[in-house]
Amino acid sequence: MLSLSYYFDFPAFFVSDSRFFRFHPDSIIVKVSRLVIVSVLFLVGPSVFANPFQKLQQEINDSLPSGDSAVFRIFSNQSQEQEVQKLFSVGVNQNGEEEEVELASLDLPKYIDVSPVVSNTVVHESGIIIKKYTVQKKDNLSKIARSFSVDITKLKKANSLTSDQLKIGQVLDVPVQVKNASTSRVVLKKIFILPVPQSRVTSRFGRRVDPFNKYNRVYHSGLDLAAKVGAPVLSAADGEVVFTGRNGGYGNSVTIQHKNGYKTVYAHCSQILVEVGETVKMGRVVALVGRTGTATGAHLHFEVFRNGKIMNPESALSMTEKHVTKLPKSEVAGM
Question: With contact defined as beta carbons under 8 Å apart, do 333 and 180 qualify?
Answer without folding.
Answer: yes
